[in-house]
Amino acid sequence: MEPPIVSEIVKQKYGEAALRAASGSKSSCCGATAASSLSCDPITSNLYDAAQTTLLPEEAVLASLGCGNPTALAQLNPDEVVLDLGSGGGIDVLLSARRVGPTGTAYGLDMTDEMLALSNENKRKAGAENVEFLKGEIESIPLPDNSVDVIISNCVINLSADKDRVLREALRVLKPGGRLAVSDVVTRGEINIAIRKSVLLWVGCVAGALDENEYRGKLAAAGFEQISIEPTRIYRVEDAREFLSSAGVDVEAIAPQVDGKFMSAFVRAVKPATACCGASCCS
What we know:
It is a single chain. This protein is 36% helix and 22% strand. The chain is built from twelve helices and ten strands. The longest helix is centred in the first third of the chain and has 16 residues, at 7-22. 49% of the residues are buried.
């Protein structure tokens, strides 16, 4: 396993991404350091269609660092309360706010001052009155028990060094019967540690990615049920050939052991109608 990404590293990377977006530059490497000659487009490109982004501030779109589009796959209903973990520039919060309507609420949670400044400016530009951005860490969500109908997230949970705590916190703030509907990076099958490290050089958002079965186990241990993990984009070695070759990696040698084992996935789970968080019930 790779060492966990500490929150200060993530905070620095996302702060830099926010500043790039505010200046009009696309941030497209899921928190990895972008290089002008290299692209992470196979991970982050073409996630949102024009119908979704046309009415959004450009900076919200430029700051998108995700690996999926949870708002396109999650069931969101009018009047509901939605929480986006690691909301970044606010694209998924603003899209969710439209879906839940003026009587619903869309919260975004982020720990990065630069991203919060950017997302609040995007909120102002979008005229979204049912949106609130909160400062905090996804391991300690600053909302009461049983207060959220749906939790979404876009390639952020995998970056946490304490995923078990994140999932317990998600269960805590969800209402009984509430839904978790997140995009995340997962792996499938055994991957040599040295090869995994080489692939992690390619794009920061696969750092910390869990095997899909381990992810299911952590969700169940936290107390979730109706768990499903649906691949939405499978990454191929060919997508990373230029980057890996420039890093001195023998692409042909690792291809059979890597190809198709890294993927974006849509992760769904439900909080039971009567649920307990650890030793004490929270429903």
